[in-house]
Sequence to fold (232 residues):
Amino acid sequence: MNTVKNFICGELSGWKKSEALWFGFCIFSTLAVSLYMRDSSAGVAASLTGTCYTLLAGKGKISCYLFGVVNTLLYSLVSYQNRLYGEVMLNLLCYFPMMFAGFICWKRNLGRDSIIRKTSLNAEERHIYLAATLFGVVIYALILKKMGDSQPVIDSLTTVLSVTAMVLTVKRCSDQWLLWITVNALSVYMWFKAWSSGSGSTAVLLMWLIALANGVIFYIKWKRECSPCQNP
Fold:
């Protein structure tokens, strides 16, 4: 019981007033707009858990992975309903297991303030990750096209970039946020197309818009706090 209490107290500690207010604004605006637009319950839940995950991850709080596990399942359902199969496979085959790996790796690198110690990639590592990512985008786009994916190129970009970004998230690297910014921008475009056609989720679209803004904020924040990247 004390372990749970200490965990909760640790996750609630270290928040600046501005950070807490931004957290509340993101959650409230997502919920308010989603309810106003009468979005599906799955879409609203996916959006809220996804927003919580991003905000907690940006703060460096390990509890982000608890929300991430739920979000991967809900978001997979919404993506399947919109025929975005790359997103489905990304969440079920990559994100879901990586949530557990991330929890374990982050737990080993927590500071006394219950916030993880942040790192960054060197030049050689950046080149390796870039080459592997570009190769993966081309191959996966061809696979998705044969599967009948509605947006194979964009879906492949968001999927492969997300895999790379998730690996960097587990490694606690600030460079992840540059990839997340790209992924979030592409996801906004992808879900806007689905939304404008009448099949997409307003809540999920809003989630990606908020994630895009948070990506910029957290990249600046992490760069100020990081040290050279190390293996988790």
Q: What stands out?
A: The longest strand covers residues 119-120. The mean pLDDT is 86. The radius of gyration is 17 Å.
